[in-house]
Amino acid sequence: MIAFKQKYSKYSLPAFILLAGSLVIIIILNLDIFSYNHSIPEYRGAAVLPGYASGKNLGLSDIDFLLDSLNRDSCVANLKSSALSFYQSLEQKKQGGVPILVYHHVCPEHDNRDISLKDFADHLQILYDNGFRPIGLQEFLTFDFNLKKDQKPYILTFDDGWQDQFRVVHNQSDNLVVHDDCAIKVLQDFNRKHPDFNLRGVFYISLDKIPFGQKKYVSKKLNYLMDLGFEIGNHTLGHDNLASIPLDEFDRSIDEFMKNMESEMGFRSLMVKSLAFPYGSIPKDEAKWDYLNNYSFNNDSHSFLVFMSCIRKPCPLPGTLEFENANHILPRIPVSKNTVYSLIKRDDIYAVP
Ligand SMILES: [Zn+2]
Q1: For residue 69, is pLDDT > 50?
Q2: Domain extent at residue 174
Q3: Which one of 119, 224, 303, 328 counts the least CB within 10 Å of its CB?
Q4: How many Å lie between the centroid of ligand 1 and the Cα of residue 327?
Q5: Cα(328) to centroid(ligand 1), Å
Q6: At 221, is the pLDDT very low, low, confident or very high (cuts 50, 70, 90)?
Q7: Which of 135, 292, 242, 244 is nearest to 199 (CA)?
Q8: Distance from the CA of 6 to the center of ligand 1, in angstroms?
Q9: Total domain count for the chain?
Q10: Cα separations (Å) of 2 from 8, 13, 302?
């Protein structure tokens, strides 16, 4: 034993350093693995500036620009070259447009009524393989997107703010991370596998339930979604039927929602620029449209850019007569298990020429 000690003692210090070094590297790598794109950061409410994961910061002037951009001339003037050719070649078309898809539950297990996580991943793959790429709603409205020839833009939207859309959990290292069983995880995994698949889409939340469940994390989730590149939309305070409720409830339903968003996201609530009508019910009253079109939040003009319905057809391009005639009410296609299979065969879907 003594001979053994003498024989190997000269190696013990380097061996110890090597071992300790390896342990440190393993620990660092592990931490890195756990935090890679998953860990949800801390947010400080109103102190957080609106921004996209790409590092692009959107400020108040951008909001003005977005408002302006629904004016056709300033819109065309600001088009990126790929979007410009897209716009110019398609604006004369009478039929068709860009599909806006709407998902509700994305369940871990398929239960016949809803989309399962597996269905959802399949949908993303089928659309991707057929040249479809998701763009943001505000990117669509301002033509601020870059797609290659023959690629087809589409817009993902998710209604109601169910927990199966976005769930978080504490991992072994006690970091808050995205749960494996939710739509956001499927989207992040797909984005990692396909870098030209951007994380874009709109989550329309109503406050009749806790947005995405998990009361403790509402603010973090909303801010994290915006960091990733998603948008948040108004789906009313109580998931209200805006066509049938009286005017005073109508006003409250929209305004209280915005106040709640302000308390969760601070300054970022100014980025809530669209509203999805619950049940697809479009109000008819002139007074209600007056309120919507002249909406101001905290004495700040904050009219909504667009409204989402559930009319099953592709969305015409902003600035076209068809778009303007529709009062900025955009059609959306509700997704069932087989929707995307028929979508890829349709010939009224716009592609970049
Ligand atoms: Zn809904």
Answers
A1: no
A2: 37-343
A3: 303
A4: 21
A5: 19
A6: very high
A7: 135
A8: 76
A9: 1
A10: 10, 17, 82
**What's the CATH code of the domain at 126?**
3.20.20.370
pTM of the model: 0.80
Q: Is the pLDDT of residue 282 over 70?
A: yes
> Is residue 334 domain-resident?
yes
Distance (angstroms) between ligand 1 centre and the Cα of 206 equals: 7
Q: So what's the pLDDT on residue 15? A: 59
E strands within the chain?
A: 100-103, 106-107, 115-116, 132-134, 152-160, 168-170, 176-178, 202-205, 231-234, 274-276, 296-297, 300-301, 306-308, 329-330, 333-334
C-alpha 5 – ligand 1 centre gap (Å) = 73
Rounded to the nearest angstrom, the distance between the alpha carbon of 105 and the centre of ligand 1 is 10
Give residue 147's pLDDT: 86
Least confident of 66-80, 175-189, 211-225, 316-330: 66-80
Give the pLDDT score at 12. Answer: 63
Instruction: Indicate whether 353 belongs to any domain.
Output: no
Count of CB atoms within 10 A of residue 136's CB?
Answer: 22
Residue 2 maps to a domain: no
pLDDT in tens, 288-301: 999 998 888 876 66
pLDDT of residue 53: 31
Structure tokens at 306: 């667009």
Ligand 1: centre distance to CA 28 (Å)? 43
